[in-house]
Design brief:
Strand order of the largest sheet: 3-5-8-7-6-10
Structural class: alpha+beta
Largest sheet: 6 strands, antiparallel
Order of helices and strands: HEHEHEEEEEEEEHHHHHH
Number of helices: 9
Strand content: 5-15%
Number of strands: 10
Length: 404
């Protein structure tokens, strides 16, 4: 079958239509450069606002947040970011700050005001508390009451969470008690979490039996077999601590473990202090200059002391007293520093939470924001390009029909 033949009227109409579409495409394409130029102008304008958003958000608030986290472990789990401005500017309803019509102000979510807070135990205050506890154990032991008789256990391994025991007076074992268990070679420190009496009724006890849920404060150095004793540890003497040698050789692994734990907590503190120093050095709060300088000096003083202490890790009375003195200065300072940080967010010459939100809204507001206008203009330019391409496609389709 031969191809269709267009009538003169059809040809004329197609040529007319092609001309209109070409004119439309040309007009749309001609408008694109102006839109793109306007978008570039708005990008410059938004960039000026963004400088201040970054200043409040990244250079001040985020630095206080980082310092606070290193000190106390409290932090904003989902802090404000650039995405919280870009979302409203792009009318992205999946972003938490994008308002619903008729509202145009971006949503002031709780994170704009520094809440809600999450917590991590990786912080200097917790490390100080842990450090102090280890110092106390070295001197005073675990503070458990002495069992009336020796206990025997099935076995303890480095992964044990339960153990069975027998004793002539079971009531002396209570939840919260801490014992050293040793077979003369291997040693573990056991905290009793729960006691389940398993004593049979006949024959009449003793012996008493029980299943204990335990936490290994110091995991066993090997398998501790049946017959090992639960011992009450009342601390090392100053002489033992001076030489770092336990008079009872079976307790030497405990001394070594406690020294390792002490050094670990001190090194943890140095790591947190380094984080604090980094945050302090980068903080650009003009109102906090004096407080930042004082906090920097205090942090460096503690870091220097702790670093020097680790050269010998002196756990004698003299060495432990020096640790206590440093803690006695550092701990209250950290409390004061946290109050300064909280005050700095809102209570100085500028409320940084307010300024951060205001600048974010100046950029992302869905009716007037600088970034919103930029995004809208960019989208408009992209739409013109798309429409021009569609019109050109129509011209090409007509040309292909007229000129096969």
């Amino acid at each position: 079958m031969p191809a269709p033949i267009l009538t003169p009227e059809e040809v004329a109409q197609l040529e007319k239509e092609a001309a209109k579409q070409q004119s439309f495409a040309d007009a749309l394409s001609a408008a694109v450069p102006a839109k793109q130029a306007r978008a570039q102008e708005l990008e410059v304008a938004d960039g000026a606002f963004k400088k201040f958003f970054d200043y409040y958000n990244d250079d001040i608030i985020a630095k206080y947040d980082a310092e606070k986290k290193a000190i106390s472990g409290d932090f904003v789990a989902n802090p404000i970011t650039e995405a919280d401005v870009e979302g409203p500017a792009s009318i992205d309803g999946s972003v938490r700050t994008t308002p619903s019509l008729p509202a145009t102000d971006i949503v002031r979510v709780d994170e704009f005001d520094g809440t809600p807070l999450a917590h991590t135990d990786v912080n200097e205050q917790q490390h100080i508390a842990d450090q102090a506890e280890i110092e106390d154990v070295l001197v005073n032991g675990y503070g458990s009451g002495a069992p009336t008789t020796a206990l025997t256990t099935t076995s303890i391994t480095p992964a044990s969470t339960t153990v069975s025991v027998t004793n002539t007076a079971l009531e002396t074992i209570t939840a919260g008690s801490v014992y050293v268990v040793t077979d003369g070679v291997n040693l573990a420190v056991v905290e009793v979490d729960n006691v389940t009496d398993t004593t049979p009724m006949a024959p009449p006890p003793p012996p008493y039996t029980a299943d204990l849920d335990i936490t290994l404060i110091v995991p066993s150095s090997g398998t501790i077999g049946a017959g090992a004793q639960f011992l009450v540890f009342t601390g090392f003497t100053n002489g033992e601590r001076t030489t770092k040698t336990a008079s009872d050789s079976s307790l030497q692994p405990l001394m070594d473990s406690l020294i390792d734990q002490l050094e670990g907590r001190i090194n943890d503190r140095i790591d947190r202090i380094d984080e604090e120093l980094a945050a302090l050095a980068a903080n650009e709060d003009p109102d906090g200059t004096a407080e930042i300088a004082a906090a920097t000096t205090a942090a460096n003083t503690s870091k220097t002391f702790l670093t020097n202490y680790l050269v010998t890790t002196d756990i004698s009375d003299t060495g432990l007293a020096s640790l206590a003195t440093e803690r006695g200065v550092r701990s209250p300072f950290l409390v004061t520093r946290l109050s300064q940080i909280d005050a700095a967010y809102t209570g100085q010459t500028e409320n940084y939470y307010d300024r951060r939100y205001q600048i974010a809204n100046d950029r992302g507001n869905t009716s007037r924001g600088t970034l919103r206008l930029q995004k809208a203009t960019e989208a408009s330019a992209a739409t013109l390009v798309s429409y021009a391409a569609s019109a050109q496609d129509a011209v090409d389709a007509i040309d292909a029909l007229l000129n096969p």
